[in-house]
């Protein structure tokens, strides 16, 4: 029997230290009534190499309900908090502004980074988003290429907000 490892180069600890670690997945809670938008942006993040792990919902009501459940469960169990909330504001019945208000008024959630990600171009909505405590307000891209660039921008912004270098 031939020893195949005899000719293989030895991997040293120094050589392994040159390999960058795989980025840790970042838990993202995406509240958006458009499933198409959710799917496109997830695909854009994969294409951009952005390590987001998605939890999605299609309404502001469900978003608030999910966050309330996390808060309630956290009183007796460890929970996995989102590390970023990506929030559409124009949704039927209850707007994303209500989700933002809920997040900023809840002690357990108010530290969460929130990026409003909307197709609505009214300047007053951007002003209201920032007034209510959004960390950023971005318009949804029109093409997949723009979505990939937006994914990279949001990832960089999140790292800045969390104080992560690189």
Secondary structure topology:
Elements: H1 13-17, E1 26-31, H2 35-48, E2 52-57, H3 60-73, E3 84-87, H4 96-105, E4 114-118, H5 123-131, E5 136-139, H6 144-162
Parallel strand pairs: 1-2, 1-3, 3-4, 4-5
Helix pairs in contact: 2-6, 3-4
Nutshell version of this structure?
This protein is an alpha/beta fold and 166 residues long.
3D structure, described in words:
The protein has a single domain (24-162), classed as Rossmann fold, CATH 3.40.50.2300. The longest helix is centred in the last third of the chain and has 19 residues, at 144-162. Helix content is 43%, strand content 15%. Strands 2-1-3-4-5 form a 5-stranded parallel sheet, with helices on both faces. It has 6 helices and 5 strands, in the order H-E-H-E-H-E-H-E-H-E-H. Strand 1 (26-31), helix 2 (35-48) and strand 2 (52-57) form a beta-alpha-beta unit. It has helices at residues 13-17, 35-48, 60-73, 96-105, 123-131, 144-162; strands at residues 26-31, 52-57, 84-87, 114-118, 136-139. It is α/β, with parallel strands linked by helices and 166 residues long. Mean pLDDT is 85; it is low at 1-5. The protein is globular and about 45 Å long.
